[in-house]
Amino acid sequence: MSHEAIIAKIESLPEEYRKQLLAFLNFLAEQSSQLAPSTKPPGFKFNWAGGFADLGKQFTAVELQHKANEWR
Fold first, then answer.
1. What global pTM score does this model have?
2. Is 14 part of a structural domain of the chain?
3. How many distinct structural domains can be found in the chain?
4. Which of 41, 51, 59, 66 has the least C-beta neighbours within 10 A?
């Protein structure tokens, strides 16, 4: 929905509903400021990469995938 469409919908509301909408927007703004994380959540770590490099000479990648599925 475009900015203009949102404004048009708000302007078409009766005054009492505009007041309720403003109160709700203030509530949402307060809630979102309380929920905003202070730090970025940790991303994926790839410290496991290359962990099976020594097995590459003994097994193919497909064989290792099948073995990993057996372990699940």
1. 0.45
2. yes
3. 1
4. 41
Q: Which residues contact 67 (CB under 8 A, 6 or more apart)?
A: 59
DSSP code string of 6-42 = HHHHHHHS-HHHHHHHHHHHHHHHHHHHHHS-SSPPP
Which residues, other chains included, contact 55 with Cβ-Cβ below 8 Å and sequence gap of 6+? 64
Give me the domain span that covers residue 17: 1-37
User: pLDDT digit of tens for each residue in the chain (72 aa)?
Assistant: 899 999 999 999 999 999 999 999 999 988 887 765 666 667 788 888 877 777 778 888 888 889 889 988
